[in-house]
Amino acid sequence: MADAADGETMTAIGFHDHGNPLDQLDVLDVPEPEVGRGDVLVDVKATALNHLDVFTVRELDHYVSEYPFWTGGDVAGVVAETGAGVTDWEVGDRVLVNPVLTCGECEYCRQGQEQLCPDLRTIGEHRRGGLAEYLSVPGTNLFSIPDDVDFTTASAVPIAGSTAWGALSSRAEVRPYEDVLIVGATGGVGTYAVQIAKNVFNVDTLIATTSTEEKADFLRDLGVDHVIDYTETEFDREVWELTDERGVDVCYNCVGGETWTKSMRSMAQGGRLVTSGATAGPNPETELRLVFIRGLDVLGSSVDRYQGFHELLEYVWDGTITPVVDDTFDLLDYEEAFRRVLDREMYGNVVLTQD
């Protein structure tokens, strides 16, 4: 496979300016990425979409160093070429990309807390991603995909799965005997959080919020014990009743907005409220008295450390956790795929595929 220096080009779904993805994204003919020392060129077969892709197109101009830019952090594909010094991968290997890039040298990286690296960069957010035919990444950021796992399923793991794993395992340290509330459970992160809480940590009672009866049925099938329709009732009051006015030990909220204070009101004494997103608004009203009177721990989380990503994959590969893929689209049908993400009506992930 030739690199950009040889004049080869590829198709990418990118943008030259920020705004609504449906207005800004276009089919581009761009140079194939160069393959540097230690890098691997991946022939992209599947790329899952996340809200991060929407945010990057819409507003994250301070992360983009050069235009045109294309997003796509969740990538699965086949090794097409290896750079100098790469010995772990061969052409034809089936691989999954860990989209998190770190310096490997700072105090946090040395301690195995790579997610706190000051130089952390994410493929598809800070660096051109996988909404293209090819992606060049460090060989150290690749994981083998088992033969019995398809590219579409694998691509739905990295960002959503690692975010949920980092929140519940590394930060909240969920225990089997605890009651857990997941706010906004039908999205990509939420569907992982449900399975992690129930299938991995075997929590005592799992409660989740959603907006329709159809979504409620889906969550019950996924393992949720009690589903609350937040459009019909104040979910904090119902949590209070379900727990005999005790509250939950852990609440995972990656929504923000008007759900934030209600989540705080749902907590038991000494509970842990963990957040890793703000899709409904980053500056919610809060209630500080609940924090100090109930002795709450408010924990921030993002994608997990490298070891956590490896732990998560073990549970996915053995079937304990099943990535939820709502629908698949050809790469050139990107508008419909992004529309599904923008409408927030999907379960789990939407994936763009290539032959």
Kindly describe this structure.
- This protein is of the alpha/beta class.
- Helix content is 28%, strand content 26%.
- It has 12 helices and 17 strands.
- The strands form 4 sheets. Strands 3, 4, 5, 8, 9, 16 and 17 form a 7-stranded mixed beta sheet that branches. Strands 12-11-10-13-14-15 form a 6-stranded parallel beta sheet, with helices on both faces.
- β13 (248-253), α9 (259-265) and β14 (267-275) form a beta-alpha-beta unit.
- α8 runs parallel beside α9.
- The radius of gyration is 20 Å and the shape is globular.
Task: List the topology elements.
Blueprint: E1 9-14, H1 21-24, E2 26-31, E3 39-49, H2 51-58, E4 74-82, E5 94-97, E6 100-101, H3 107-110, E7 121-122, E8 134-138, E9 142-144, H4 151-155, H5 158-171, E10 179-183, H6 188-200, E11 205-210, H7 213-222, E12 226-229, H8 235-242, E13 248-253, H9 259-265, E14 267-275, H10 288-293, E15 297-300, H11 306-317, E16 325-330, H12 334-343, E17 349-353
Parallel strand pairs: 10-11, 10-13, 11-12, 13-14, 14-15, 16-17
Antiparallel strand pairs: 1-2, 3-4, 3-8, 3-17, 4-5, 5-9, 6-7
Q: Architecture of the largest domain, according to CATH? A: Alpha-Beta Complex
CATH homologous superfamily label of the largest domain:
Medium-chain alcohol dehydrogenases, catalytic domain
Mean pLDDT: 94
Radius of gyration of CA atoms, rounded to a whole number: 20 Å
Please indicate the percent range of residues in DSSP E strands (runs of 2 or more): 25-35%
> What name does the CATH topology of the largest domain carry?
Quinone Oxidoreductase, Chain A, domain 1
Quickly count the helices.
12
Terminal residue distance: 17 Å
* Sheet/helix structural class: alpha/beta
General shape: globular
**Major β-sheet annotation:** 7 strands, mixed
- Low-confidence stretches at least 5 residues in length (pLDDT < 50)? 1-5
CATH class of the largest domain: Alpha Beta
Helix proportion range: 25-40%
Q: Encode the helix/strand succession as letters.
A: EHEEHEEEHEEEHHEHEHEHEHEHEHEHE
The count of β-strands is 17
Domain count: 2
